[in-house]
Design the sequence.
């Protein structure tokens, strides 16, 4: 069948092509050839204009942000905020006084009372709105971070923004679903966030996300030289009802204002961002039992190990790309590189070439890779000179490169570096790389990769439940402890019933500092090997101790009705057997993350100092020791005379069953100051059990984890409350994340 031709104008290919050619000519030369011929860069988003415009709307004179509005009390002095690159005056902020702080605390307390009563799904909706508001205001946030903090605009609008929003949205998801294991936990109330140094969006939301998700209100005290970014975040939090008024308050002032927090009993906790330990101890007040909860300063430095078989080009590219890491995330510096002697020279040349290719300049320029140091930060000439005197190479931006002879020496050097919090291992020999990564005592290790902008290696929001719980628990109160508030302290919950008869054991003594030092050192040496044993091997020791205490077999003696033997051995045997079974089942999780997989496990805390005190033998408190030992820790126990005998009896049973002698040391004490004496020798954890006096935070603040067990074991003759076993496991361990490239979503 022949199709019929349509009537009308005939089809003329030549005319159609001629018209197209005319149209193309009108558009000018093709853009792609021109770009390749000139290599000019096209227009880039960003610039300083959004930040400058925001400052102009406030007349470049900003107040405090309290209760959802700007607070400008009359008669206040001002502080200057200067541009990081030029020193130009950007704006002034108020020099806050104690009355301003009091108003902010009252506003935060009122908001916290309502916010804490909201359900998790409602809080999650608000946090998602906050994330959306920050995303809409990203241009202004990036410009302000570049102007006042020296943070390169391209990174502020890229990786930093992406990470910051994720650090807010993941806690929102936990609030929506209900974190597993945190049922019944209550908010703390008002949490003070003390920031030192210029603060990126990701660093600030690293704290604010879990803090708000758990139902608390925040009072942020930014540094005097860089308060603009936190103020803008607070203002954006009020847009569109993202957060109720009073939930996020920012008060500006000098460091002296921080000490005025001591006058406010409604401050339930103080947490730090980008703060060195000496600054923490200068601000801290009260004690673990009497005063606000003190959160440790997060962040540290990254240690990179480059072995002989490494791909040096990829290692150099990743290391050079990490030099712009936010100082609030890693306040002790960026990378320390340990390279085997066979490749140190080759790696050094590649690093110099990479670092030389970075654009150092105006952070507002979107093409800048590395911005300037803030005006208040001195150039690190002394650090460079000291590094060179110790045989290291140093190139600026500051990067320390040290030669090591072997993988074992690299592990030893990395383990001895202060403030090391994360590491990376480069080697094409995967077996060797995994062995080195496994031996590093760091919470996060990348394998043939490095991304310091993500503090959990691709799983900052929590690869596995434990990693998410770790940050949420910092800002919550468990159901077995009294609710936060003046006069409510957990110090006397453990064995608080008075003894009906005089307590035997003789007079209390002060622990000898030399004995404590020797015990901590012995526990540290032994704990490394004890913690690396398979869980089944440690379980066998606990079962043997249970049998020795009861005269039975590995499964323990026949149970008596109620286990009411006079010395409490029945309950202690049950605890030993329960944790023997528990440790055999402990495992980890594997989660797919962008670009790879994250293997998340729990590692022993290390050396735990346990202070037993109070008016009775504290046999109940001995039930804290089996979980700590089962999970691979070394223990130094200081007990009053009435508690030494039962503790030594437990130790004897454990050593007879195969526990290394230095893994558990029992020392006499009870005269006061036991906790402070232990804290001076820097154990990895400090547990304060009973109703005795406790060290103040100036002593205990140097310990990574300070814990008052409170009612976690339940009352005398009662079973532990729900969730207590998980709490004990988390208190005895720390998360470990190994990031492996390839196969990720």
Sequence:
């Amino acid at each position: 069948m022949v199709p019929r031709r349509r009537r009308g104008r005939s089809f003329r290919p030549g005319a159609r092509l001629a018209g197209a050619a005319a149209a193309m000519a009108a558009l000018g030369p093709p853009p792609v050839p021109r770009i390749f011929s000139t290599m000019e860069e096209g227009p880039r988003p960003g610039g300083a204009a959004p930040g400058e415009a925001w400052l102009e709307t406030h007349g470049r004179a900003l107040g405090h942000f309290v209760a959802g509005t700007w607070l400008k009390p009359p008669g206040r002095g001002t502080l200057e905020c200067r541009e990081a690159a030029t020193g130009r005056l950007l704006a002034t902020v108020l020099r806050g006084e104690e009355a301003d702080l009091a108003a902010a605390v009252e506003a935060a307390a009122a908001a916290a009372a309502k916010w804490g009563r909201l359900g998790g799904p409602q809080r999650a909706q608000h946090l998602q709105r906050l994330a959306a508001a920050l995303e809409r205001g990203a241009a202004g946030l990036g410009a302000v971070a570049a102007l006042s903090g020296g943070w390169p605009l391209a990174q502020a609008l890229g990786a930093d923004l992406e990470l910051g929003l994720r650090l807010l949205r993941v806690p929102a998801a936990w609030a929506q679903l209900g974190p597993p294991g945190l049922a019944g936990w209550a908010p703390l109330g008002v949490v003070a966030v003390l920031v030192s140094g210029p603060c990126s969006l990701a660093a600030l939301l690293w704290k604010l996300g879990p803090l708000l998700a758990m139902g608390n209100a925040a009072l942020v005290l930014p540094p005097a030289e860089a308060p603009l970014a936190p103020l803008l975040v607070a203002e954006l939090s009020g847009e569109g009802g993202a957060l109720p008024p009073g939930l996020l308050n920012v008060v500006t002032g000098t460091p002296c204002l921080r000490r005025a927090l001591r006058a406010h009993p409604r401050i339930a906790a103080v947490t730090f961002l980008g703060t060195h330990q000496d600054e923490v101890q200068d601000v801290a007040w009260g004690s673990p039992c009497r005063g606000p909860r003190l959160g440790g300063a997060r962040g540290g430095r990254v240690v990179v190990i480059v072995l002989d078989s490494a791909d040096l080009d990829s290692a150099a590219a990743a290391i050079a790309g990490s030099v712009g890491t936010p100082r609030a995330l890693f306040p002790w510096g960026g990378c320390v590189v340990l390279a085997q002697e066979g490749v140190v020279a080759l790696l050094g040349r590649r690093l110099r070439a990479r670092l030389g290719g970075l654009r150092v300049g105006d952070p507002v320029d979107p093409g800048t890779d590395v911005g300037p140091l803030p005006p208040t930060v001195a150039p690190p000439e002394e650090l460079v000179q000291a590094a060179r005197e110790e045989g290291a190479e140093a190139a600026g931006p500051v990067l320390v490169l040290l030669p090591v002879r072997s993988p074992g020496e690299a592990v030893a050097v990395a383990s001895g570096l202060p403030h090391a919090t994360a590491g990376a291992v480069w080697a094409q020999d995967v077996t060797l790389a995994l062995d080195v990564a496994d031996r590093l005592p760091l919470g996060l290790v990348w394998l043939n990769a490095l991304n310091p902008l993500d503090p959990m290696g691709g799983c900052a929001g929590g690869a596995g439940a434990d990693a998410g719980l770790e940050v949420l628990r910092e800002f919550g109160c468990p159901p077995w402890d009294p609710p936060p508030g003046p006069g409510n302290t957990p110090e006397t919950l453990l064995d608080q019933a008075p003894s009906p008869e005089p307590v035997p054991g003789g007079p209390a003594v002060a622990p000898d500092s030399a004995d404590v030092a020797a015990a901590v050192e012995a526990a540290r040496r032994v704990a490394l090997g004890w913690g690396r044993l398979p869980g089944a091997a440690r379980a066998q020791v606990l079962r043997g101790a249970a049998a020795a205490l009861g005269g039975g077999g590995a499964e323990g003696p026949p149970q008596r009705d109620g286990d009411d033997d006079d010395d409490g051995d029945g309950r202690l045997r049950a605890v030993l057997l329960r944790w023997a079974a528990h440790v055999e089942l402990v495992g980890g999780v594997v989660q797919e993350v962008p670009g790879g997989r994250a293997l998340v496990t729990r590692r022993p805390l290390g050396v735990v100092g346990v202070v037993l005190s109070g008016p009775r033998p504290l046999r109940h408190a001995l039930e804290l020791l089996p979980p700590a030992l089962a999970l691979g820790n070394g223990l130094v126990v200081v007990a009053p005379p009435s508690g030494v005998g039962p503790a030594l009896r437990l130790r004897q049973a454990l050593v007879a069953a195969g526990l290394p002698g230095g893994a558990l040391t029992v020392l006499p004490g009870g005269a006061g100051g036991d906790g402070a004496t232990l804290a001076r020798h820097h154990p990895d954890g400090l547990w304060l059990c009973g109703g005795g006096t406790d060290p103040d935070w100036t002593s205990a603040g140097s310990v990574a984890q300070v814990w008052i067990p409170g009612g976690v074991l339940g009352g005398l003759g009662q079973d532990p409350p729900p969730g207590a076993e998980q709490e004990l496991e988390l208190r005895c361990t720390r998360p470990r994340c190994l990031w492996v490239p390839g196969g990720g979503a």
